[in-house]
Amino acid sequence: MNWKRNVRILWLCNFMVSAGMTMVIPFLSLLLWEMGVTEHHSLSVWTGLVFSATFLSAAIMAPIWGMFADKYGQRANLIRAGIGMGLITSCMAFAASPMALLVLRFLVGFFSGFITVSFSYLARVVPKDHSGEALGTLQTGSIAGNIIGPLIGGALSDLFGFRPVFLVTGLCILLTLLPVIVWLEKDPVVPQTKENKASFKEVFEHRPLIILFVATFLVQIAVLGVNSMMTIFVQSLVGHTSNLAFLSGLASSITGIATIIGAPYLGKLGDRIGQEKTLPMLLLLSGLFALPQVWTDHLYELYVWRFLQGLVVGGVWPAIQALINAQSPRRIQGRVFGVTASSRFLGNLTGPTAAGAIAGFFSISSIFVLSGLLLIATGALVGYATHDRAWREEMKEKIAAWTHRLHSRY
Hints:
By secondary structure, this protein is mainly α.
């Protein structure tokens, strides 16, 4: 199987899906306003609900689609996600009320997970000594889409209105099915028998996997929490300027650009020296680069710290995925990556809520304290677990060697 070809195919697919799904972000609140939600507090509540509904249903369904992948493979899972997401997103163009839009956003979450599934597919088919490189490269596709998508969506909505953008988004997602069906090879599936039956119980019996699930959840809280509050923080630095949206968007884009630069190289580094060594280091550095942003007084200073953090945080997700792949038996890999996706979606859901609460109780800059401390604590947790496991394996080897010597002597 040509894994480099698969990386290129999925890079294009992830770019199109990410660009499509983020096209609608710039005008969701404006569409709700157009639907009649004009009171400021109600508009904020509805925007939060519509934005978060997808993450909630996706977190519920991810383990179930993991079972589907164990039986039929991740390629079939990609086709399933593309069809469901594309068709339901297209239907949003015809939503006549805020409740209809909310229901459709909730429904699209039931079929979502294309990007997470693509990581799972690559983890199955790429040689383990190249998994970091492949997953790091794949990550740049979704990040590039996240950067380009809002720009395209904003331009299209200005030219044609809000609703046609949903049709464009649905079409972008459906078009990803062509390269998946035509060029992507089917991933191997372990036959399910009575003696070799997969179960979620076995997933949660692996302590290293549980630690990586927790790490996934905490990293998403740290990253998404800051991103959700970036506009408000930039406003606290520059005031009510006419180009506030551009300046705050640039703060997020700079991090994304840095991630695109750093992710492939950090993935290769992890392949060379071991992902279990690079992951704690990357988490620690990400946290240390987040903390100085608390005391940032100038916009360009913020951009520098965001760029530096983006360089290292881009290697975190590929390292987690590579370690999860290495720790999970083949017959339960679909379930394992389903729980991973659920952890990620729950982090996406929790991050903005936690950041909003912290900013409300303390100050807007305190979101960087939350992010930095969470990343450092996650690095310490992963580092301790890795060291503890390595120490146990070393002791087992020493005990086995001593036992062998005793048997040889007596």
